Amino acid sequence: MRNFVLERLKKHGTKLISALKEPEHEPDNIIAKFVSVIAAGVLYLWYCMVDCIVFRLEGVLICTMYCSEYDNGSEYMSFVKSIIDNKEKLEPVFCEEGSNYEIIIFYSRKLRRISSFFKHNQKQYELYEKVVNGCVSTCVHCGCGILGPYPYSYRDNGGCIGKISECYICRDYNNKGVRIIREYCKEYGTEKAVIRAANDGFGEEEEC
Predict the structure, then answer these.
(1) Are 108 and 93 in contact, with CB atoms under 8 Å apart?
(2) Torsion-angle region of residue 154: left (phi > 0), alpha (psi -120 to 50) or beta?
(3) Which terminus of the chain has fewer Cβ atoms in its 10 Å neighbourhood, N or C?
């Protein structure tokens, strides 16, 4: 939602500036546009308030993956595995299970429901506090948090291969695909973007 409201504010602000710069517009028309932008500003403040409420109640979306192949026995991977093992309590918005991996997408605040699993391990409890407050790496495409092994990938951008923060859903798309995801996220928000991406909604129909 943050991406959504900021994009709307930028869009309406640009319209207002353009309207005021064009001398051929009649005063009444400029006033109408100004009133329209004021209304958009009020709507923006409403979205911000709702956004704050949603964050306090649910937090941020976290894309989490556990893969037995990458489990090195660290506290971090034990923490991730505990989350996956108790996914029913987190009410994930998306689940995917493979032969040796599992991906879930859930709201960070719901991690409080299983906080008792981490209270007796200082390192894991520190991880818990960070994740429940949304302090994780963020996917540059859909905007969800990333939790699991290798919270980044490498992408070829015009012959230059660089390290980039990508969730376990978006990294399956090529460059054209992630560009579409970014635009969709600006328009509809993180949850709709990542769920559609997870269900191959930006697949063959978009020639990704």
Answers:
(1) no
(2) beta
(3) N
